[in-house]
């Protein structure tokens, strides 16, 4: 798989921040600069239409059940995240999320797709095209009673909004392993791919461990801790009136607030690490009883984060930490300071049970 060179039909623009020349791929609305790591939006006039595409999910046509998951972990090794070093947690995050889903919530292992940048299968690498195909596979043909999970551990980005659908004026994005060649995946696309197709009776839970990820699914309602310590819903419906919800299903995103000042904390070469956001989620779910409410889950996550992780995976009860037992540390590479919950609909977080 070739990540270099200038693709056929591409054009060039200048980075908004450092003025470097950037290659624009057909169909992309934003591009990440390899020199300063910042994201520049592609103006409508500079966008190149995509050619007609074939089936989006062909590489993932295998067993499907009512419980399906896509887990993505990107270390950005081999210089793919220039000037920032390699993350030493995302692949461990994916392994522990898979164990959590399969061992506690009964997800069939063959229905859990893992995209990590240490795999040999080119269709299991977390490239932009593969992530897009996996998202479409996740929701394709969804029906009443389906429980879907999307997990991302890696780097996020932020770019100025150009269509007036963001309350804070910025779009959030996730960076695939080829972000410098293909650009990040904007929240508009993520919402269109895995939120809007959800029909009545379908549940989607997303857990995102990345900087600038608080509203990366573009869901209309955000629940976070206020200054007085109480969880409070905020209306994040677009000022334009555009609908960002589902087609009758329910979507929930568990992510985190970060101010962007401390995005990365790379651990020493000899120490395998785990992401603080994923760690707090997995540890809170494993330590809480079945039927825990969303409110109690969020409070547990917040306590674990404020205690600096509360220890490694060694102190988990059960099999969840099994893939990475040993002397491991928690790395807050996303700079997350507080957990957030966003949703396609508001609900009582202290009464509604958390169920996957």
From TrEMBL:
<dbReference type="GO" id="GO:0004197">
    <property type="term" value="F:cysteine-type endopeptidase activity"/>
</dbReference>
<dbReference type="GO" id="GO:0005737">
    <property type="term" value="C:cytoplasm"/>
</dbReference>
<dbReference type="InterPro" id="IPR011600">
    <property type="entry name" value="Pept_C14_caspase"/>
</dbReference>
<dbReference type="Pfam" id="PF00656">
    <property type="entry name" value="Peptidase_C14"/>
</dbReference>
<dbReference type="InterPro" id="IPR050452">
    <property type="entry name" value="Metacaspase"/>
</dbReference>
<feature type="domain" description="Peptidase C14 caspase">
    <location>
        <begin position="66"/>
        <end position="343"/>
    </location>
</feature>
<comment type="similarity">
    <text>Belongs to the peptidase C14B family.</text>
</comment>
<protein>
    <recommendedName>
        <fullName>Peptidase C14 caspase domain-containing protein</fullName>
    </recommendedName>
</protein>
<dbReference type="GO" id="GO:0006508">
    <property type="term" value="P:proteolysis"/>
</dbReference>
């Amino acid at each position: 798989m070739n990540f270099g060179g200038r693709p056929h039909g591409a054009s060039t623009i200048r980075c908004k921040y450092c003025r470097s020349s950037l290659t624009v791929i057909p169909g992309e609305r934003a591009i990440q600069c390899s020199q300063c790591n910042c994201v520049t939006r592609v103006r409508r006039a500079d966008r190149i239409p995509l050619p007609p595409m074939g089936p989006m999910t062909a590489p993932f046509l295998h067993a499907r059940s009512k419980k399906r998951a896509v887990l993505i972990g990107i270390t950005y090794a081999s210089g793919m995240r220039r000037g920032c070093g390699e993350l030493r947690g995302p692949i461990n995050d994916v392994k522990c999320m898979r164990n959590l889903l399969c061992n506690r919530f009964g997800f069939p292992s063959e229905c859990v797709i893992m995209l990590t940048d240490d795999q040999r299968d080119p269709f299991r690498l977390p490239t932009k095209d593969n992530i897009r195909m996996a998202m479409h596979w996740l929701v394709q043909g969804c029906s009443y009673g389906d429980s879907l999970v999307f997990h991302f551990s890696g780097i996020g980005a932020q770019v100025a909004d150009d269509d007036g659908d963001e309350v804070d004026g910025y779009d959030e994005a996730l960076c695939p392993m080829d972000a410098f060649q293909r650009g990040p995946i904007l929240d508009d696309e993520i919402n269109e791919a895995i939120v809007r197709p959800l029909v009545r009776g379908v549940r989607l839970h997303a857990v995102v461990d990345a900087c600038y990820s608080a509203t990366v699914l573009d869901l209309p309602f955000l629940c976070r801790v206020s200054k007085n310590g109480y969880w409070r819903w905020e209306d994040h419906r677009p000022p334009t009136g555009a609908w960002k919800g589902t087609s009758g299903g329910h979507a929930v995103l568990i992510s985190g607030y970060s101010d962007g000042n401390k995005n990365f904390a790379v651990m020493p070469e000899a120490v395998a690490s785990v992401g603080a956001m994923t760690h707090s989620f997995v540890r809170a779910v494993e330590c809480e009883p079945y039927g825990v409410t969303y409110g109690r889950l969020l409070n547990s996550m917040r306590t674990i984060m404020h205690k600096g992780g509360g220890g490694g995976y060694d102190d988990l009860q059960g099999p969840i930490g099994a893939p990475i037992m040993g002397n491991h540390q928690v790395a807050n590479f996303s700079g997350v300071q507080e957990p957030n919950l966003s949703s396609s609909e508001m609900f009582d977080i202290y009464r509604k049970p958390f169920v996957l």
